Input
Amino acid sequence: SGWLQVLDEVINNELILVDAKKREFTISDAELTEEMESRYGPNIILNLQKVNLTIEEAQKMLSEEMIIHRMVYYFVRSKAEQNVTPSKIKNSYQLYIKENPSQEIYSYNVISIRCDDNKLANLAANKVHLLLKEKNQDPKDLEDTLKEIEKEYKNCSISVSNLYKTSSKDLSVSHKNILKDLEKNNFSDISSQVSRINNKQLSRIFYLKDLEKIEAKTFDEISNELKTKLVEKELLQVGNNFFNKLKKEYLVENKVISKDF
Output
């Protein structure tokens, strides 16, 4: 499935070797000998026989590999690294902070009281609020008791939401205004509003179960990671420019006639 990419890599490697020869770029015998010993160990001849290679073949392969690595470093990697200046890293950090600011994670429940009669809604909401303050427990543990209160008021419903876990940046303004002043394991005052659709009152009480503060990473913590990403991006750009230049200079054109080529 990746044959086209492999073919392009083979062509690029051959172009590097041709260009290196033109520049008279070579690997010294001492460097080659040291790398041969490092790659194949002290018993070079014996180890080469195990992989069906002659010493001349191994030296040629290793020499070409070293030339390719060094040419790529000189003409691609070193330029890419030079392009990633301190100011670019700082700009990248500013973008990172904008996308990943310090935030707070609110874990909370909402107790909702709805009644057909607004007067009953106020009475039910006050009784629920008094119970919650008195018991000072997780509202989910009080659902049965709340259902008993619900029966006392005609056409009323009292419900406890599932636990919401929401980031401060995603929290609605109305919810945030209530939750930001609450301490953990505490209930808010009653918040009421009348629906424009049916003119019925909805009363809500918020319970803040937990508040987790997540600080944004500092520049020192994230700078190396940001630099690596910037270098990778530059490597792609500088590498493409380098190999396109070689193909143009040495009149190499890679055209795929069809997918079955």
Notes: The first strand starts at residue 103 and ends at 115. DSSP finds nine helices and six strands in the chain.
